[in-house]
Amino acid sequence: MVEKLENKLLKVTTISLTLVLSVVIICVAVLSFSHMLRRADDTLTAFSKINMDKEFEYIYPPPPARGRDEFANPVIGPFNFHSVIAIRFDSDENIEFINFSEWDEATKNQIIRSARTLYKQDDERGFINLYRYYKSGESIYFLSIRESFSAFASAIIFMILAALGGIISVLVLVKIFSRRIIKPIIKSYEKQRRFITDAGHEIKTPLAIIGADCEVLELEKGRSEWSDDIKKQIDRLTHLTNDLIFLSKMEEEQESDMIALPFSDIVKDVASSFSALYKSEGKEIALSIDKDIIEVIGIGSELERLVYILLDNALKYSTKESKIYVDLKENKNYCTLSVQNKTDRKNLENLDCLFDRFYRADSSRSSDKNGFGIGLAIAKAIVENHKGEIEAKEIEIGVMDIIVQLPVKKY
């Protein structure tokens, strides 16, 4: 129980922290990239507004006076005009001017090829590799964002590494202090479990005395319907007390000696013991096992009780003259036990609560079914003790299927 709570706390902390940091990093990345893109576009737009002579040489105006166009400033943010490549086409789509200065031939050829392609397209702005381009009239302007993009990528990588370091640090701290965090929950759970166990043992003694007194009364006064009813209720309370004590012990997570067991034989034996009872109520069991021997690692008495609970539940809550299908199959690492039966719609309304203690589909508890609603809770505890899974679902209208998965023995 304690280990499960600690693992859940670590899992929730990890997921929550990862989601929050991921959202923060994504937002920062989007904003940073948008800012870089906006600066690049401002630089290209400003460059396109500067007057250049026919030789395409830069003519930088003096610093802007108050009220003058802001694009007169040749330096915009992290970019400057010396990083801009401008190409102008004539009316015949031939290159008229190129302002290459200190660019290598490979870069020049790449830009020229890109410019010819872009000139025929309608896009005003976009990317070509690590260049941002802008089309204005017969001119195309290119701006290298390689350095800014490298700085952007480095910042994102740094944030991711910092986030991973933060997550690991927080998980280490949570692991260290988790026992203190869940200590009140552990104490409350231990008190509840101890109360159930102690109360169960305390109840057994008065029940035994009442049973003995009832037998003495029958010897003196003779058997009557009242004495029969007393013994019947004693048996029911004794059964409930034993179930509660068993369930409490199952949740202690004590290591038990588990051995390889033929689960297929257990299912066959329990199903066979139910055959006569099913026939007496006009019902039938259809048993299907895909292999002669299916072995699991477990405790025989608990697995037998698991199958008994499932078949008893199907018997109680199946419709009249119905057929109960019991199917056992082996997969790669698990064997799957399926118990299907037709039932009333009210029994399928809250399948998520089916394995809760004292859950009854009939909330008024006026059902004529003999039980306390604790059987499937015990079944779930047995399955979890065997590192398996159990679930209930409605496979079609009015048909419930309880599915158990248990790990099989590996050879």
List the topology elements.
Elements: H1 2-48, E1 75-76, E2 79-80, E3 84-89, E4 95-98, H2 105-119, E5 125-128, E6 131-136, E7 139-144, H3 146-181, H4 183-221, H5 225-250, E8 259-262, H6 263-280, E9 284-289, E10 295-298, H7 300-317, E11 323-330, E12 334-342, H8 375-385, E13 389-396, E14 399-407
Parallel strand pairs: 9-11
Antiparallel strand pairs: 1-2, 3-4, 3-7, 5-6, 6-7, 8-10, 11-12, 12-14, 13-14
Q: Please, could you describe this protein's structure?
A:
With 411 residues, this protein is of the alpha+beta class. It folds into three domains: 2-148; 187-250, Orthogonal Bundle (Helix Hairpins); 259-407, Heat Shock Protein 90 (2-Layer Sandwich), CATH 3.30.565.10. It has helices spanning 2-48, 105-119, 146-181, 183-221, 225-250, 263-280, 300-317, 375-385; strands spanning 75-76, 79-80, 84-89, 95-98, 125-128, 131-136, 139-144, 259-262, 284-289, 295-298, 323-330, 334-342, 389-396, 399-407. A five-stranded antiparallel sheet has the order 4-3-7-6-5, with helices on both faces. Strand 13 and strand 14 (399-407) form a beta hairpin. The longest helix has 47 residues, at 2-48. The two termini are 30 Å apart.
Name a few traits of the molecule.
411 residues; alpha+beta; Helix Hairpins; Heat Shock Protein 90; 3 domains; five-stranded antiparallel sheet; five-stranded mixed sheet; elongated
